[in-house]
Recover the amino acids of this structure.
């Protein structure tokens, strides 16, 4: 069974009390989550909707970013993406929170949204406006309940090493479904081998799938993670730039399996984005997104 | 091919003499075509209706690159044939390297200076529909796309490489400048000591329209690099053959480049670029060390793709001394 992504816009978690109400509102925040014991005092603040929330029992996520590790020797020049995707896949009903600053608050909200995760974003003054802009962007997206696409199943034994294998696969834009037993509906089910050398697993999967038959490919960037939902002649592509646009916006080429002649695109921080060199062939649909700052959503249809 | 040498072409500071270079260009192109008039000779390669790309090599700029004097001389001849300045593109992949040279100072007004990557890493300057796809080392991005200007606009290309050794490819001459210089995402082929330059260079050079639109190679041998190329961070490894080469066969010209680099290295007591022992791997500030196993065999391989003649016995070289 394919899992549908629910469109969950992460809320700001703010625990400093209503004395900060004005700056929260000035940043553009319209909804916040607060500790239960502050709920009543916030409910009197006009212009904000409020919910009670607790970070107790929620898993704190890492700050999504790119770690270039330029001072460390490695077998690859590919930068390290600090992504929480594997955590979301392992705990689809989990409760999460970020504690992040500045533009990472925006990327955090987008990351959780793209993976359909329940997450709160705790931030400081620097993150309020970026988060508010991202929330506005996410709330403005057309509703979609398409199922998430997986090219293969991956047997998750729940160990830390297997979690890391899942992490590496997500960074390489290999679309998998976490399973606890082989799923006969999938052409390929992989076991968590190569724990000491995750890239070997990545290569093995690519060889078995063949790149041409992967549901999504990304060209032109190693800092973008893609997610894909599709069904009934429609598809939604999620693109996350893990630099959060701090160093440079990314221009990327995307290949989606299947023919989708029609499209619409929304990109955070960009007015009237357009796709370039759009080409829908019987096998695949390709397009170039000339600028990806933090997050973009491309809706495709037949 | 034609090889023109002038001892007066480069002064002791390494600066080239524009007037002498102009004479070298005239002598070389006339010898190549057999025409008595320089303009007639250039007119064999380009016509006024062409949109001409001058593919320079700036990978070692600003220390070493296709000399502005050579490039300016070529452009002057294109204009004399009737190609409008606005239809001439001096181009390279990386804007920073290209801009560091300062070509416009010697070029006619209106000539375009074009870099495929105004922002390093941007794919927008490349044609998304024309690419070579290969997975070398498990990289995620397996495509190398042709520069959009080349795929869409240019009708002729004049290739202007520099006589340089190359740490990965062995030498970087006509083939590598037209191959790696016209496609994106190529450094992935030489990220580790054993590279994939052997077959990838010729493969890219054989892709249309690069292959058929590259009508002339003018090798800048005024200066060169014999170790640690394509860059020239160490002045010790720079040398000055004081030559300009002309030809239509990139394989034959690159074969001669191997001979030039090997002769220079031998005179410096350096190992051959054909040395493939792992014992040579190391810090290339030592001319007997290198970061890669060099692949000068890429030139002979390219000949198997129909890109030219590698057999030394069949390569005719006419020497001209000015």
């Amino acid at each position: 069974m394919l899992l549908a992504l629910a469109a969950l816009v992460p809320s700001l978690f703010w625990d400093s009390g209503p004395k900060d109400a004005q700056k929260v509102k000035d940043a553009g925040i319209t909804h916040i989550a607060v500790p239960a014991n502050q709920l009543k005092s916030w409910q009197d603040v006009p212009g904000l909707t409020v919910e009670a929330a607790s970070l107790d029992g929620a898993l704190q996520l890492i700050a999504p970013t790119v770690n270039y590790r330029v001072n460390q020797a490695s077998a690859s020049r590919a930068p390290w993406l600090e992504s929480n995707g594997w955590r979301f896949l392992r705990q689809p009903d989990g409760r999460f929170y970020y504690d992040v600053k500045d533009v990472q608050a925006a990327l955090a909200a987008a990351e959780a949204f793209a993976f359909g995760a329940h997450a709160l974003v705790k931030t400081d003054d620097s993150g309020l406006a970026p988060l508010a802009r991202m929330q506005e962007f996410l709330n403005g997206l057309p509703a979609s309940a398409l199922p998430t696409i997986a090219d293969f199943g991956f047997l998750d034994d729940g160990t830390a090493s297997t979690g890391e294998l899942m992490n590496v696969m997500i960074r390489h834009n290999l679309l998998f479904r976490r399973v606890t037993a082989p799923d006969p509906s999938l052409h390929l089910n992989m076991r968590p081998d190569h724990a000491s050398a995750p890239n070997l697993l990545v290569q093995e999967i690519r060889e078995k799938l063949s790149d041409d038959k992967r549901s999504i490919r990304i060209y032109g960037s190693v800092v973008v993670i893609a997610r894909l939902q599709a069904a009934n002649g429609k598809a939604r592509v999620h693109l996350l730039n893990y630099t959060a646009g701090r160093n440079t916006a990314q221009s990327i080429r995307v290949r989606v399996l299947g023919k989708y002649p029609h499209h619409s695109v929304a990109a955070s921080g960009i007015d009237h984005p357009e796709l370039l060199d759009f080409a829908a062939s019987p096998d695949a649909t390709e397009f170039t997104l000339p600028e990806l700052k933090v997050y973009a959503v491309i809706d495709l249809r037949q | 091919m034609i090889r023109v040498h002038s001892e007066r072409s480069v002064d002791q500071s390494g600066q080239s003499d524009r007037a002498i270079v102009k004479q070298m260009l005239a002598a070389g192109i006339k010898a190549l075509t057999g025409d008595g008039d320089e303009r007639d000779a250039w007119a064999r390669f380009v016509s006024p209706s062409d949109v001409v790309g001058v593919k320079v090599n700036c990978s070692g700029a600003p220390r070493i690159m296709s000399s502005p004097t050579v490039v300016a001389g070529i452009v002057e001849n294109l204009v004399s044939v009737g190609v409008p300045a606005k239809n001439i593109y001096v181009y390279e992949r990386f804007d920073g390297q290209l801009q560091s040279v300062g070509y416009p100072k010697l070029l006619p007004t209106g000539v375009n200076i074009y870099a495929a990557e105004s922002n390093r890493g941007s794919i927008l300057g490349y044609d998304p529909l024309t690419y070579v796809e290969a997975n070398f080392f498990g990289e995620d991005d397996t495509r190398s796309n042709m520069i959009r200007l080349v795929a869409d606009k240019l009708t002729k290309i004049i290739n202007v490489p520099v006589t340089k050794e190359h740490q990965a490819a062995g030498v970087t001459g006509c083939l590598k400048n037209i191959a790696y210089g016209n496609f994106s995402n190529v450094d992935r082929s030489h990220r580790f000591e054993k590279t994939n330059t052997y077959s990838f260079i010729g493969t890219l050079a054989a892709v249309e329209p690069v292959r058929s639109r590259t009508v002339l190679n003018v090798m800048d041998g005024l200066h060169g690099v014999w170790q640690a190329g394509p860059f020239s961070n160490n002045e010790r490894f720079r040398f000055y053959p004081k030559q300009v080469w002309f030809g239509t066969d990139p394989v034959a010209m690159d074969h001669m480049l191997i001979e030039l680099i090997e002769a220079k290295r031998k005179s410096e007591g350096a190992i051959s670029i054909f040395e493939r022992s792992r014992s040579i791997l190391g810090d290339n500030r030592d001319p007997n060390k290198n970061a890669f196993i060099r692949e000068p065999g890429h030139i002979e391989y390219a000949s198997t793709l129909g890109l030219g003649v590698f057999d030394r016995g069949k390569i005719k070289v006419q020497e001209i001394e000015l």
About this structure: Chain B has a mean pLDDT of 97. Chain B touches chain A at residues 119, 121-124, 128-129, 135, 138-143, 185, 191 (CB under 8 Å). The first strand of chain B starts at residue 2 and ends at 5. Chain B has ten helices and 13 strands.
